[in-house]
Amino acid sequence: MQRLFWTTAELERQGLTRTALGLLVDSGRLLRLRQGLWAEPTAPLELRRAAVTGGAATSTTAGAALGLWTPPDERLHVAVPSGASRLRDPDDPSRPLDDDDLVCVHWSKRMPSPRALPDRVAPLLLVLEHALHCLRPELALSMVDSALNRRAMRATELPLLASMLPARLRPVVLAADGRADSGLETVVRYLLAQSGIAALVHPVLPGIGEVDLLVGGRLIIETDGKEHHTGDAFIIDRRRDRAAALQGYRVIRLTYQQVLFDWPRTFQAICAALALA
Predict the structure, then answer these.
(1) Predicted confidence (pLDDT) per residue in 127-166, tens digit
(2) Can you name the residues that pair with 32 across neighbouring β-strands?
(3) How far apart, in whole angstroms, are the C-alpha atoms of residue 128 and residue 197?
(4) Does position 52 have pLDDT exceeding 70, yes or no?
(5) Domains in the chain, ordered, with CATH?
(6) pTM (two decimals)
(7) Which among 12, 54, 5, 9 has a CA at the least distance from the CA of 32?
(8) pLDDT range class, residue 276, cuts 50, 70, 90
(9) In terms of C-beta density within 10 A (0-12 exposed, 13-18 middle, 19 or more buried), how is residue 202 classed?
(10) What is the mean pLDDT of residues 12-16?
(11) pLDDT score for 227
(12) Are the C-beta atoms of 135 and 190 separated by less than 8 Å?
């Protein structure tokens, strides 16, 4: 793990004096975040803000830093050990952290000291636990699926993650499927299942190839993710759609906006397409 953050004591153990630290800051080779805490200039902004508070990034803040698919979330999510004190404002370390709707603090007995985390990112299972506590189930599940798909965690760790959660959230974790390579896929699959509609994940259809989801044996759902799908991918997708139509399948393509921000109408469209398939 690349070290992005340092305490003054750690830097002094490497032989750096206060004068040398000042020169590194002046030259832009080191950033002073708050008293006793320093960062590499390459440290991402949201990780620096989490570190300034006195904690470590978690939930969607950490998920984005780890390269997981994450839903839109303007909040800064910070994990701190139970009993942590002297939390600071992420944008002004001279001020204590006040109640702020855009800063979500997750207190945990399982959280190690942030000083033990060289990148100031909470352990992955804690990141996912906090996501499951503060996001809608389908959005948190999308992060779990992404962690599995990108091999950041193993399927054998799912029972442990479930055990960290209240009973009402455990079924969400057990619905994880590491084959999903898009958060939108996960959201659609989960919300359909909640309505009693099962979807096959990534079936390979003769003459068509692998599709995102197959519902009712005849309805193909593709989650494009981008509002404007152009170039060679656009041509290939339309060629596949034509092949599907010739074999009696119906195809519905869903965008990021339709899945995350207009689900009721999107669900109606899926049901209508399913009735005609």
Answers:
(1) 999 999 999 999 999 999 999 999 999 999 999 999 999 9
(2) 38
(3) 26
(4) yes
(5) 44-137 (no CATH), 183-276 (3.40.960.10)
(6) 0.91
(7) 5
(8) confident
(9) middle
(10) 92
(11) 44
(12) no
Report CA-CA distances (Å) from 176 to 44, 67, 123, 157, 199. 29, 18, 19, 11, 13
3-state secondary structure 83-99: CCCCCEECCEEEEECCC
> Are 153 and 125 a contacting pair, CB within 8 Å?
yes
pLDDT per residue over 194-231, tens digit each?
999 999 999 999 989 999 999 999 999 999 765 445 55
Mean pLDDT of the chain: 93
DSSP class per residue in the chain = ----EEEHHHHHHTT--HHHHHHHHHTTSSEEEETTEEE-TTS-HHHHHHHHHTSEE-HHHHHHHTT-------SEEEEEETT----EETTEEEEE----TTEEEEEETTPPPGGG-TT-B--HHHHHHHHHHHS-HHHHHHHHHHHHHTTSS-GGGHHHHHHTS-GGGHHHHHT--TT--SHHHHHHHHHHHHTT--EEESPEETTTEE-SEEETTTEEEEE--SS---HHHHHHHHHHHHHHHHTT-EEEEE-HHHHHH-HHHHHHHHHHHHHH-
Paired strand residues for 76? 103
* Token pair in block for residue 53: 């508070």
What Cα–Cα distance (Å) separates residue 263 from each residue in 12, 192, 271?
A: 54, 11, 12
Q: How does pLDDT run across 124-137, given as a tens digit for each residue?
A: 999 999 999 999 99
Q: What's the rounded Cα separation, in Å, for the pair 116 and 265?
A: 47
Q: What does R_g of the chain's alpha carbons equal in angstroms? A: 23
Amino acid at 199: A
Q: Which two tokens stand for residue 43?
A: 């440290």
**Angle in degrees, CA 181, 184, 187, rounded to 5:** 110
Residue 15 phi/psi, 5-degree rounding, is 95, 10
